[in-house]
Amino acid sequence: xxxxxxxxxxxxxxxxAGCSNDDIFQDxxxxxxxxxxxxxxxxxxxxxxxxxxxxxxxxxRAFADARGYSLRFQxxxxxxxxxxxxxxxxxxxxxxxxxxxxxxxxxxxxTLPYLQQSPLIIYKSGSKxxxxxxxxxxxxxxxLAGSSHAELLQRLSEETPELSWREVQAGDTLELxxxxxxxxxxxxxxxxxxxxxxxxxxxxxxAALDLEAEEDVAWYLPSTAAAAELKDQINVFxxxxxxxGLLEGIRERHFGTAKFxxxxxxxxxSRRVETLLPQWQPLIESVAAEYRLxxxxxxxxxxxxxxxxxxxxxxxxxxxxxxITRATADELGVTDRxxxxxxxxxxxxxxxxxxxxxxxxxxxxxxxxxxLAAYNIGYGHLEDARVLAxxxxxxxxxWPDVRSxxxxxxxxxxxxxxxxxxxxxxxxxxxxxxxxQYFSTLQLKSVTAERIQPPVDVSTMLAxxxxxxxxxxx
Length: 474
Prior knowledge:
Elements: H1 3-17, H2 24-31, E1 33-39, E2 46-48, E3 51-53, H3 55-67, E4 70-76, H4 79-87, E5 93-99, H5 102-105, E6 108-110, E7 115-117, E8 119-124, E9 141-144, H6 148-159, E10 166-168, H7 173-181, E11 187-191, H8 192-198, E12 205-210, E13 215-222, H9 225-244, H10 246-255, H11 263-275, H12 277-290, H13 295-306, H14 326-332, H15 340-357, H16 366-377, H17 379-391, H18 399-405, H19 425-449, H20 464-468
Parallel strand pairs: 1-4, 1-5, 9-10, 9-11
Antiparallel strand pairs: 2-3, 5-13, 6-13, 7-13, 8-11, 8-12
Helix pairs in contact: 12-13, 12-15, 13-19, 15-16, 16-17, 16-19, 17-18
């Protein structure tokens, strides 16, 4: 297909996209297809390989499964575009990490909130830190156009008229973080939940001050009678998901790593991803594929173990890329622990064995984090922590509950009562926390490398009369 033909196909698709159903909610009742406007970002909706992922996606998926709906997404590349899709009723709802604001409430209906976050001012480490609202005056401050932050700054400017800012037409705060990192802006306003996750990609960026207290995040629907029934369905689901722990589980899966992340550790890891990982990535990918593991997980574990040093040794006798003990090496058939392929294969096989050994009713991702704890501390000690969790009324199938009991394995008042006795439980907690952070960072890097790009704006390529004069050539 020629470039001209591509242009005609694009124009036709844009015209078709402009056509909306007369009654999209009637279509929902008959077809069961829920159409959602969202934005492509690491905290909302993205593709991890060929699989959709993201906090908003997982929550929507759970709702759709509960109601028997199928899902179709409309990705908006600016917040204005997203709200226009909703306003024109081309979608049933917008799910994109949207803060509840008076301005939006005047136009749309909201569901119950399912997340809280606060607006942060961020800056690059080494530059002057703003500590008060007055410190923002005269600084190059950027914000997403159409965002709740733009509305907030407008309200703040009524009290501080000297306050100024630039609005960036984008749908993702990664754009703002990139501008500040490259010193194309001094400051940016970003939601706290997004910043805690995405700071792993930009560890030089630091939170300066909160502009307001925590705000509620919700899904938005058209302000029509037809949308009210769907809103009621969503609210019932959110209440049940909160009560059952489902909602907290989804929050933990996507935002849990941020609680334990270290900015210095993230900065060091980010640098080594650029300098060391390319040397080992093909081998890590090959071994991971052999053992049906995510290569980014194997990369994270091997970094935690040896910082990707195949000759690494410890005073306790473990060595190699995956720091395998001699006894484990003999069990796994590893003859040379300092050979990187053998070490990676041995470690991958060991992780796979631990995943198989865990009780079948432990679900992901809890299963993976427990297997990694067992990799560090031993399967018997992990089982001791699970028993302690159960005795204390916690759930031995959930990683946060088991994690809370691992430090007790070195408590002299408790470990003598366990089957396998003393273990460095605090070290095991740190071990898994670090791997989760490294794994999450590599996932985020994959997401940003494969982000959905905005469609080409043909009006910037050719004038309207030139477009009409093009012959159709296939």
